[in-house]
Design brief:
Aminopeptidase; alpha+beta; 3 helices; 21% helix
Length: 222
């Protein structure tokens, strides 16, 4: 294990909890010891994406996890998260810091049973608020469901204050750029407290929270 992981050797770190009717949505960092969880979820994610990418599994029926998967537990500018609903695994998100105060969602996946229930929306909002500043979110040009999801979520989050351009790097397709809300946590500071929220134990300028993967694609979530 990379020696800089430090606190990730201990209990999982809570980023936030948001009540949703009778359930709650949590976004937690994944320590290196649990990365097989994300590796397994990647199989479902890549299978869903294969509808748009044409990717096929290998001779053992497995999809690849990408060249940057392990890097998420090595580089401090990459953050691997799991999404929980009422304590059960519901998906994952991989976040990258492109430069100071500029972040991107590299991968985002919600299990089908939790789609169209608001889980993806809440998870995205939590991630945006956790990393104040500018965000870039791109989708594959063929993945129309993902484009619809992110336009809707980002429009609601930013109150329609976002720009859309064409990303010419992976994934090639529409890209939305926007700023976080004024009430999101200040850079390097604690996440604001509120009903149903836990203050993050992860200071992105202090604790080497962890990692992300490369800019790739996204599956529609809801």
């Amino acid at each position: 294990m990379h020696q800089n992981l430090g606190p990730l050797d201990g209990p999982a770190i809570f980023i936030a909890v948001v009540p949703m009717r009778s359930q709650s949505v949590e976004v937690l960092l994944v320590p290196e010891g649990e990365k097989d969880l994300l590796r397994n979820l990647m199989q479902a994610y890549r299978h869903d994406l294969s509808e748009f990418t044409g990717e096929a599994p290998n001779e053992w029926g497995e999809f690849g996890v990408g060249n940057y998967f392990d890097v998420y537990w090595l580089e401090p500018e990459r953050y691997p998260f799991k999404v929980l609903v009422s304590g059960e695994v519901a998906g994952f998100a991989l976040v990258r810091e492109l430069e100071p105060d500029v972040h991107s969602i590299a991968e985002f996946f919600i299990l089908r049973r939790h789609r169209r229930s608001g889980v993806g929306r809440e998870a995205a909002f939590l991630l945006f608020d956790q990393f104040p500043g500018s965000w870039h979110v791109a989708q594959d040009r063929h993945n129309v469901p993902a484009q619809r999801f992110w336009r809707r979520v980002i429009a609601e989050y930013s109150e329609d204050s976002f720009e859309e351009t064409l990303s010419e790097s992976q994934p090639v397709g529409p890209q939305q750029t926007f700023m976080t809300r004024p009430d999101s946590s200040a850079a390097g500071g604690a996440r604001p407290r509120g009903p149903g929220h836990l203050t993050s134990d992860c200071d992105r300028h202090g604790l080497p929270c962890r990692e992300r993967v490369a800019l790739v694609n996204w599956v529609a979530v809801q």
